[in-house]
Design a protein that fits this description.
Blueprint (H helix, E strand, L loop, with lengths): L3 E5 L19 H17 L3 E5 L15 E3 L4 E3 L11 H9 L5 E3 L11 E4 L2 E6 L5 H13 L3 E6 L10 E3 L4 E5 L12 E5 L10 E3 L2 E5 L3 H8 L4 E5 L2 H4 L10 E2 L1
Parallel strand pairs: 1-2, 4-5, 7-8, 10-11, 13-14
Antiparallel strand pairs: 1-15, 3-4, 6-7, 9-10, 12-13
The structure holds citrulline.
Length: 253
Protein backbone atom coordinates (compact mmCIF):
# COMPACT_ATOMS: atom_id res chain seq x y z
CA UNK A 1 0.00 0.00 0.00
CA UNK A 2 1.18 3.54 -0.66
CA UNK A 3 1.16 6.03 2.18
CA UNK A 4 2.28 9.17 0.37
CA UNK A 5 2.58 10.84 -3.00
CA UNK A 6 4.58 13.84 -4.18
CA UNK A 7 3.20 16.02 -6.97
CA UNK A 8 4.19 19.35 -8.47
CA UNK A 9 1.71 21.93 -9.77
CA UNK A 10 2.20 22.54 -13.52
CA UNK A 11 4.02 25.75 -14.42
CA UNK A 12 2.82 28.30 -17.00
CA UNK A 13 6.00 27.42 -18.87
CA UNK A 14 4.61 23.91 -19.48
CA UNK A 15 3.64 25.08 -22.96
CA UNK A 16 7.37 24.86 -23.73
CA UNK A 17 7.61 21.28 -22.45
CA UNK A 18 9.19 18.49 -24.47
CA UNK A 19 6.76 16.79 -26.79
CA UNK A 20 6.56 14.45 -29.73
CA UNK A 21 2.79 14.14 -29.57
CA UNK A 22 1.65 16.58 -32.28
CA UNK A 23 -1.54 17.31 -30.35
CA UNK A 24 -1.00 21.07 -30.05
CA UNK A 25 0.03 23.18 -27.08
CA UNK A 26 -1.42 22.41 -23.67
CA UNK A 27 -3.94 24.82 -22.16
CA UNK A 28 -2.42 25.86 -18.85
CA UNK A 29 -5.70 26.67 -17.06
CA UNK A 30 -7.21 23.35 -18.06
CA UNK A 31 -4.02 21.54 -17.06
CA UNK A 32 -4.28 23.10 -13.59
CA UNK A 33 -7.86 21.81 -13.26
CA UNK A 34 -6.85 18.36 -14.45
CA UNK A 35 -3.97 18.37 -11.99
CA UNK A 36 -6.35 19.31 -9.14
CA UNK A 37 -8.59 16.39 -10.07
CA UNK A 38 -5.52 14.14 -10.07
CA UNK A 39 -4.63 15.21 -6.54
CA UNK A 40 -8.24 14.65 -5.43
CA UNK A 41 -8.12 11.15 -6.88
CA UNK A 42 -4.91 10.34 -5.00
CA UNK A 43 -6.42 11.65 -1.76
CA UNK A 44 -9.49 9.49 -2.29
CA UNK A 45 -7.16 6.48 -2.50
CA UNK A 46 -5.99 7.23 1.02
CA UNK A 47 -2.54 8.69 0.38
CA UNK A 48 -1.15 11.84 1.93
CA UNK A 49 -0.19 14.21 -0.89
CA UNK A 50 2.84 16.52 -0.72
CA UNK A 51 2.28 19.29 -3.25
CA UNK A 52 5.28 21.22 -4.54
CA UNK A 53 4.88 24.71 -5.99
CA UNK A 54 5.10 25.21 -9.73
CA UNK A 55 8.63 25.82 -10.98
CA UNK A 56 8.64 28.12 -14.00
CA UNK A 57 12.29 27.32 -14.73
CA UNK A 58 11.43 23.79 -15.73
CA UNK A 59 8.55 23.32 -18.19
CA UNK A 60 8.40 19.55 -17.61
CA UNK A 61 8.76 19.67 -13.84
CA UNK A 62 5.16 18.60 -13.17
CA UNK A 63 6.29 15.13 -14.34
CA UNK A 64 7.94 14.44 -10.97
CA UNK A 65 8.09 10.69 -11.50
CA UNK A 66 11.17 10.99 -13.69
CA UNK A 67 13.52 12.61 -11.18
CA UNK A 68 13.50 10.01 -8.40
CA UNK A 69 12.82 6.36 -7.69
CA UNK A 70 11.09 5.93 -4.35
CA UNK A 71 11.43 2.40 -2.95
CA UNK A 72 10.37 1.20 0.50
CA UNK A 73 14.03 1.33 1.68
CA UNK A 74 15.69 4.19 -0.20
CA UNK A 75 15.14 6.95 -2.69
CA UNK A 76 17.38 7.16 -5.75
CA UNK A 77 17.74 10.61 -7.30
CA UNK A 78 18.03 10.15 -11.05
CA UNK A 79 20.02 12.02 -13.69
CA UNK A 80 17.47 12.77 -16.42
CA UNK A 81 18.50 12.01 -19.98
CA UNK A 82 16.78 15.16 -21.21
CA UNK A 83 19.26 18.03 -20.63
CA UNK A 84 16.45 20.52 -20.06
CA UNK A 85 15.25 18.38 -17.13
CA UNK A 86 18.54 17.65 -15.42
CA UNK A 87 18.32 20.38 -12.79
CA UNK A 88 14.84 19.32 -11.72
CA UNK A 89 16.55 17.00 -9.25
CA UNK A 90 17.88 19.85 -7.10
CA UNK A 91 14.64 20.64 -5.28
CA UNK A 92 13.54 17.01 -5.21
CA UNK A 93 16.74 16.14 -3.31
CA UNK A 94 15.73 18.55 -0.55
CA UNK A 95 12.16 17.26 -0.42
CA UNK A 96 13.24 13.63 -0.23
CA UNK A 97 15.81 14.32 2.51
CA UNK A 98 12.84 14.81 4.83
CA UNK A 99 11.18 11.62 3.63
CA UNK A 100 14.07 9.14 3.50
CA UNK A 101 17.08 8.22 5.63
CA UNK A 102 18.78 6.61 2.65
CA UNK A 103 19.26 8.59 -0.52
CA UNK A 104 21.35 7.44 -3.48
CA UNK A 105 22.33 9.31 -6.64
CA UNK A 106 22.85 8.39 -10.27
CA UNK A 107 26.25 9.64 -11.41
CA UNK A 108 27.45 10.78 -14.86
CA UNK A 109 27.72 9.38 -17.46
CA UNK A 110 24.67 7.44 -16.29
CA UNK A 111 21.28 8.81 -17.22
CA UNK A 112 17.96 7.59 -15.85
CA UNK A 113 14.39 8.86 -15.90
CA UNK A 114 12.27 6.87 -13.50
CA UNK A 115 9.37 6.72 -15.95
CA UNK A 116 11.57 3.92 -17.27
CA UNK A 117 11.37 1.97 -14.02
CA UNK A 118 8.50 -0.32 -13.09
CA UNK A 119 8.27 -1.80 -9.60
CA UNK A 120 6.93 -5.32 -9.18
CA UNK A 121 7.20 -6.07 -5.47
CA UNK A 122 10.95 -6.26 -4.72
CA UNK A 123 11.99 -6.30 -8.36
CA UNK A 124 12.43 -3.31 -10.65
CA UNK A 125 12.30 -3.49 -14.46
CA UNK A 126 14.45 -0.78 -16.02
CA UNK A 127 13.84 0.22 -19.63
CA UNK A 128 16.74 1.32 -21.82
CA UNK A 129 15.36 4.28 -23.72
CA UNK A 130 16.49 7.54 -25.30
CA UNK A 131 16.49 8.91 -21.70
CA UNK A 132 17.89 5.99 -19.66
CA UNK A 133 21.22 4.48 -20.65
CA UNK A 134 22.90 1.19 -19.78
CA UNK A 135 25.29 2.86 -17.31
CA UNK A 136 22.39 4.51 -15.49
CA UNK A 137 20.41 1.27 -15.41
CA UNK A 138 23.40 -0.60 -13.95
CA UNK A 139 23.77 2.05 -11.25
CA UNK A 140 20.09 1.64 -10.38
CA UNK A 141 20.58 -2.12 -10.06
CA UNK A 142 23.68 -1.73 -7.82
CA UNK A 143 21.84 0.73 -5.60
CA UNK A 144 18.78 -1.51 -5.33
CA UNK A 145 20.98 -4.48 -4.39
CA UNK A 146 22.41 -2.56 -1.42
CA UNK A 147 18.90 -2.68 0.05
CA UNK A 148 18.05 -6.28 -0.81
CA UNK A 149 16.07 -5.32 -3.92
CA UNK A 150 16.70 -6.51 -7.49
CA UNK A 151 16.58 -5.01 -10.96
CA UNK A 152 16.75 -6.14 -14.55
CA UNK A 153 17.06 -4.39 -17.88
CA UNK A 154 14.39 -4.31 -20.59
CA UNK A 155 14.98 -3.00 -24.10
CA UNK A 156 12.42 -0.74 -25.71
CA UNK A 157 12.17 0.80 -29.14
CA UNK A 158 8.72 2.26 -29.70
CA UNK A 159 7.83 4.41 -26.70
CA UNK A 160 9.28 7.29 -24.66
CA UNK A 161 9.48 5.51 -21.31
CA UNK A 162 8.97 1.92 -20.15
CA UNK A 163 5.80 2.90 -18.33
CA UNK A 164 4.40 4.59 -21.43
CA UNK A 165 3.42 1.06 -22.44
CA UNK A 166 3.34 -0.94 -19.20
CA UNK A 167 1.72 -0.70 -15.78
CA UNK A 168 1.86 -3.20 -12.92
CA UNK A 169 -1.46 -3.35 -11.07
CA UNK A 170 -0.41 -5.75 -8.27
CA UNK A 171 -1.75 -9.31 -7.86
CA UNK A 172 0.19 -10.36 -10.99
CA UNK A 173 -1.85 -8.06 -13.30
CA UNK A 174 0.24 -6.33 -15.93
CA UNK A 175 -1.22 -3.80 -18.35
CA UNK A 176 0.76 -4.01 -21.59
CA UNK A 177 0.66 -2.61 -25.08
CA UNK A 178 2.61 -2.85 -28.33
CA UNK A 179 6.20 -4.10 -28.09
CA UNK A 180 5.76 -5.27 -24.48
CA UNK A 181 3.18 -7.91 -25.37
CA UNK A 182 5.85 -10.12 -26.92
CA UNK A 183 8.62 -9.88 -24.34
CA UNK A 184 9.50 -13.13 -22.58
CA UNK A 185 10.13 -11.52 -19.19
CA UNK A 186 6.49 -10.44 -18.99
CA UNK A 187 4.87 -13.72 -20.03
CA UNK A 188 4.53 -14.86 -16.41
CA UNK A 189 2.07 -12.05 -15.69
CA UNK A 190 -1.66 -12.00 -16.17
CA UNK A 191 -1.54 -9.62 -19.16
CA UNK A 192 -4.22 -7.00 -19.64
CA UNK A 193 -3.76 -6.15 -23.31
CA UNK A 194 -4.36 -2.60 -24.47
CA UNK A 195 -5.00 -2.17 -28.18
CA UNK A 196 -2.76 0.12 -30.17
CA UNK A 197 -5.39 2.80 -30.80
CA UNK A 198 -5.89 3.14 -27.03
CA UNK A 199 -2.20 2.87 -26.17
CA UNK A 200 -2.25 6.05 -24.07
CA UNK A 201 -4.35 4.14 -21.49
CA UNK A 202 -1.49 1.69 -20.87
CA UNK A 203 -0.09 4.36 -18.56
CA UNK A 204 -2.40 3.93 -15.61
CA UNK A 205 -1.68 3.60 -11.88
CA UNK A 206 -2.65 1.26 -9.08
CA UNK A 207 -3.08 3.17 -5.83
CA UNK A 208 -4.22 1.07 -2.88
CA UNK A 209 -6.65 -1.17 -4.81
CA UNK A 210 -7.99 1.60 -6.98
CA UNK A 211 -6.76 1.97 -10.55
CA UNK A 212 -6.66 5.46 -12.01
CA UNK A 213 -7.00 5.44 -15.80
CA UNK A 214 -7.22 8.20 -18.41
CA UNK A 215 -10.73 9.12 -19.54
CA UNK A 216 -11.84 8.33 -23.08
CA UNK A 217 -10.45 4.84 -23.59
CA UNK A 218 -13.50 2.55 -23.29
CA UNK A 219 -11.87 -0.68 -24.46
CA UNK A 220 -8.96 -0.27 -22.07
CA UNK A 221 -11.41 0.43 -19.27
CA UNK A 222 -13.28 -2.80 -20.00
CA UNK A 223 -10.04 -4.79 -19.92
CA UNK A 224 -8.87 -3.22 -16.66
CA UNK A 225 -12.29 -3.69 -15.04
CA UNK A 226 -11.63 -7.44 -15.16
CA UNK A 227 -9.27 -6.98 -12.23
CA UNK A 228 -12.19 -6.11 -9.95
CA UNK A 229 -10.43 -2.98 -8.70
CA UNK A 230 -12.33 0.23 -8.31
CA UNK A 231 -11.61 2.51 -11.27
CA UNK A 232 -11.30 6.29 -11.39
CA UNK A 233 -11.19 7.95 -14.81
CA UNK A 234 -9.43 11.29 -15.23
CA UNK A 235 -9.24 13.63 -18.17
CA UNK A 236 -5.54 13.89 -19.01
CA UNK A 237 -5.74 15.69 -22.35
CA UNK A 238 -3.35 18.54 -21.50
CA UNK A 239 -0.62 16.25 -20.18
CA UNK A 240 -1.02 13.86 -23.11
CA UNK A 241 -0.01 16.81 -25.34
CA UNK A 242 3.39 16.68 -23.58
CA UNK A 243 3.79 12.88 -23.76
CA UNK A 244 2.90 12.70 -20.06
CA UNK A 245 0.57 10.25 -18.40
CA UNK A 246 -0.88 9.38 -15.01
CA UNK A 247 2.23 7.74 -13.60
CA UNK A 248 4.44 10.69 -14.55
CA UNK A 249 2.55 13.15 -12.35
CA UNK A 250 3.46 11.64 -8.98
CA UNK A 251 6.00 9.78 -6.90
CA UNK A 252 4.12 7.17 -4.89
CA UNK A 253 5.64 5.40 -1.89
C1 LIG B 1 9.27 14.73 -21.23
O1 LIG B 1 9.39 14.53 -22.46
O2 LIG B 1 10.19 14.55 -20.44
C2 LIG B 1 7.93 15.20 -20.72
N1 LIG B 1 7.32 16.08 -21.67
C3 LIG B 1 7.02 14.03 -20.44
C4 LIG B 1 7.54 13.13 -19.36
C5 LIG B 1 6.67 11.97 -19.15
N2 LIG B 1 7.11 11.22 -18.04
C6 LIG B 1 6.95 9.91 -17.92
O3 LIG B 1 6.50 9.23 -18.86
N3 LIG B 1 7.36 9.35 -16.80
Amino acid sequence: MFQKAIVRIPSKSMVKGLSSANLGLPNYELALKQHEAYVEALLSCGVEVITLEADENFPDSTFVEDVALCTPHCAIITRPGAESRRQEIEEMKEVLKDEYENIEFIQAPGTVEAGDIMMVENHYYIGLSARTNEEGAQQIISNLEKYGLTGSIVSLEEVLHLKTGLAYLENNYLVACGEFLEKDEFKKFNILEIEKEESYAANCIWVNDTVIIPKGFPKAKQVIEKTGYEIIELDMSEFQKLDGGLSCLSLRY
